């Protein structure tokens, strides 16, 4: 959605106003919570007792973000393991990006270089009895093996998304958590984003009316030479360090160092655009639609840019990519009255392009009374539909929330009726938002220290194995829908961790 800066500001003010209304009873407390904002929103406390002693496995792009954003009041990082020497160095020194400043800058040279140990072999890290938990930020194909080994070694696990490459693997990870009594969290950070939580609060209040459609996208443009961050040159230092390690790499599913470094573009090691990007936004969509599971999906995917011979840059022609570079998928979700009437369905369309990025990534939730736009996990905008009672709508209108006649709060353009006091407090808290990484690590530590194994609704991990498996099922099944060119109906047993049924082995899917 293309908006002028003025329209964006208006949309943000509208969103803050609505959050100010929906959360007016406790926003004052949230504003006062300061650095503990995540704790305040998600109902956990500052850590009591010793900080959790944590080892990180994988300090590449995402591992470096998590190292930089880890909460030192909750978590004491004591070890980092990575098989690529360049990324072990990156853990210490960062890489010039402000999201990945590295441990020296974050914790000081003394702590980063003397208290934290660095390993090229993660097994040395797992062998340390003093380490209570691990954060795993390695390629998709390795999540299952590393997470299970870590739990069996007595560590709690926070594993990056997508949970695993198959649903069967997700189920064995959940089983390992159960068998070992360890916590298993998965890093879909939107579950810990205050912005998304606030957005959901205004949806729950009914301000958007009936939601029938969410349009989500993550569009990038890699068509210019050198712009494809998923296809990197292998650093000679990594090549030299790993030249005799092909058997070890093969054990994790990487044919060689090239496949380790560029794992995202190969079918054997990654899960394509849906696993890497789409899973986040399907996760968000299922939250917006009331934390429900999808009913069915279909889609088209292709190598529509990299696969076309003789067109484009030299870089492109040398590309070894196997995964699709464009995907367009449709998900059917149940509406609130679906059980009584199967016509009550909401449709989520998702696209990920590699050749155009005019539109920022995000989600647009379209309701019968209003539209919510979330962009780049950083800002949310709210607009109103025109209605006979409360006047015109659109992107130029400043909105307020008023009490409707009989149907609860509604959006209105009339300032005179408005309870505006909460908006400033909402604005203040919304401005301080992180993408959720810090909060997910804080809550992970809180659950470890307080031995909380409860489901999310009772204060347990908000993205535990079962929740994360549902996200993996959506992403992985949409890949199957595109591959087999069919509409796939999700089966309840796929979502049951105790049931071995999985889409990748289901005859109705692959037959
Ligand atoms: N939550 C998010 O927003 C987000 C964003 C980006 C990536 N991710 C996820 O994070 C994970 C990692 O992605 P990335 O971009 O950091 O990839 P990356 O390739 O940049 O980093 C992965 C690192 O893991 C290391 N590694 C692989 N196997 C290992 C092993 N057996 N032992 C030790 N180290 C090993 C690699 O050497 C590399 O340094 C992926 O699952 C990805 O989907 C999540």
Topology, pairings included?
Elements: H1 5-22, H2 27-33, H3 37-42, E1 52-57, H4 61-69, E2 75-81, H5 85-93, H6 103-107, H7 109-115, E3 117-119, H8 122-126, E4 133-136, H9 140-152, E5 156-159, H10 167-180, E6 184-186, H11 194-204, E7 211-217, H12 236-242, H13 246-251, H14 257-261, H15 272-288, E8 296-302, H16 314-317, E9 326-334, E10 345-352, E11 362-367, E12 370-375, E13 379-384, E14 400-403, E15 409-412, H17 421-431, H18 437-449, H19 465-484, E16 488-489, H20 507-510
Parallel strand pairs: 1-2, 1-4, 2-3, 4-5, 5-6, 7-10
Antiparallel strand pairs: 7-11, 8-9, 8-16, 9-10, 11-12, 12-13, 14-15
Helix pairs in contact: 1-11, 1-17, 2-17, 9-10, 10-19, 15-19
The protein binds nicotinamide-adenine-dinucleotide (NAD).
CATH architecture annotation of the largest domain: 2-Layer Sandwich
- For this structure, the CATH topology of the largest domain is Dihydrodipicolinate Reductase, domain 2
Give the count of helical stretches: 20
CATH class identity of the largest domain: Alpha Beta
Gyration radius from CA atoms, angstroms: 23 Å
Bound molecules: nicotinamide-adenine-dinucleotide
Major sheet characteristics: 8 strands, mixed
| First-residue to last-residue Cα separation | 40 Å
The number of E-state strands comes to 16
